[in-house]
Amino acid sequence: MNIETKKIIFLFTVGFLFSVAFSWILSKQPSVLIRSDHFSRWYATYKLVTEHRSIYDPRNGEELVALYPVPANWVGNFLYPAHLLIFTLPFAQLPYPVAHFIWLILIQLFLLAGIGVVSRETRWPHTINQFSLVFMLSMFFLPNLQNTIWGQFNTIAALGLALVYAALRRERYFLAGIFAIGFTFKPQTMLLTLLFLLLWASFHRKRWTFILGFGLCSLGFWLFAEALVPHWITSFLRGVISYSNSLDPKPVLSKLWLPSWFLSALVIGSSAWLFLKNIHSAPTSIQFSGLLALSLGVWWVFVPVIGMMHLAGLPIIAIILFSALERGGSKLYLPGVLGVILLYLLGFIGFLYGLSRPELYGIHIELAELAIKIGIPVLILLLATPLSLPKIENSDLTKGKKMSKIHAEASQIIDARPEEVYSILSDYHTGHLAILPKPYFAELTVEQGGQGAGTVIRVRMDVMGLERSYRLIVSEPEPGRVLIEADDEAGVVTTFTVDPTDGGKQSRVTIATDAKTSPGLTGFVERLVNPAITRRIYRAALNLLAEYVRNR
């Protein structure tokens, strides 16, 4: 076990122990137990189990209000989709203080697990020290603390987002659809993101399994809930409408200085345009990451929500967004990171200052929300919008006209040190030749050089009966890590990236190609078909590479 693995284990152990300690302290406070969002859900589920009473029965709330001295605006009804019973039903078998204690631990671990999943997938932050900083900041993120204090359900969606993103990047669309059910337990958290993913998946046949996975999982959960609470959807909607009418939360847009109608039209119009322009983007592309962040940013500024708890999953989308900004070489990367950290600190400072002024009741929440609930979502919007813009490539060939591009990539862990893998890739006489999968690569001829930068090769490919030839010039922008093959005339650029993993004992090899497409209907077919075929070819090449290093 290397030192980095030990550090990560130690870090997650610290996170777990903090979650246990924080949950223990909260569960010892009677006011926290009673006012917890988990309490009314536990009570309604308990009555369902013991008396077969509907979780939406108004008597549940009336009994809670009668039993405990709670604020006048406190609501004791269930007010969640009935399939949330998958989480509350096991706890109804336990005494409430015990159930509350365990639940608080779980909702904190959901967020920490999501951070681990998405960080591993994006390889951002790059070092264990940077990851530790992100990890600790997320643990003490005010919306996460608020979510825990109130025993809320927002981090279910946060973990769901991380799992969906990881599965999509690996092209496991059916599994991603199953994970997307995590967005539905508390729909007001990430509903727009779910709708975007379903729309995005509908435009490509191979992605339809995402819709299938989500549909089958939704059907299963609906049947599960219907068996326990017949006609629950009607009762749920009736309760939500009643609850909404009793409150008057304001969206973030209403608190900005520009007229809300103008901002609404601007944000909705520009976001819809970006979604449609990038609807074919691959899950590994920076545009897709930008669209995910954009969907959440738009949702957070439009939806009227009380408190900041719905932002508990913000660290997940921040990792996705910043990894894409860095990967795309955006000048907004560093200002964006510093901006989020600054707003994070301002929110914490405002919160602590407000607590020091007890005569100004509630000012600590207002000051914190100014930075976190308003500032960070707006910043996410500003960062995600340029990242989501369609790429316009200009060269001598384009003659000033916009050219459509496709992107395809595949990655694999190779059981060899990075320098060994890179030497194979850069050797066009032997090593590189050995990893070209047949029958796709019909011929490779070295016209000049043969070792790394300056090499010129001619490649003839035969894909589905269509032959194409490329004259590729090799460069090494990062010798030992990045090798590029480019055919300017064909508009094709292929990048081989070798990153160390497992303390340098293994390598993560990524092969990525960006290519221009033909105009008109032919280009549409190319954008539809070529990325999947290219990824299949690259996965075969990576398998050959893995076999080659084993046999050396």
Describe the structure.
This protein has two domains: 3-388, no CATH class; 405-551, Alpha-D-Glucose-1,6-Bisphosphate, Chain A, domain 4. Strand 4 and strand 5 (482-487) form a beta hairpin. 37% of the residues are buried. The protein is an alpha+beta fold and 552 residues long. Residues 392-403 have low confidence and may be disordered. The two termini are 25 Å apart. It has 21 helices and seven strands. Helix 6 (96-122) packs parallel to helix 16, helix 14 (260-277) packs antiparallel against helix 15 (286-302) and helix 15 (286-302) packs antiparallel against helix 16. The protein has a seven-stranded antiparallel sheet with strand order 1-7-6-5-4-3-2, covered by helices on one side. The chain has helices at residues 3-27, 30-35, 37-51, 58-67, 85-91, 96-122, 128-139, 142-149, 154-169, 173-179, 191-202, 208-228, 232-246, 260-277, 286-302, 314-327, 333-355, 363-388, 418-425, 431-434, 520-551; strands spanning 405-414, 441-448, 456-463, 466-478, 482-487, 492-501, 506-516. Helix content is 59%, strand content 12%. The chain is elongated and about 85 Å long.
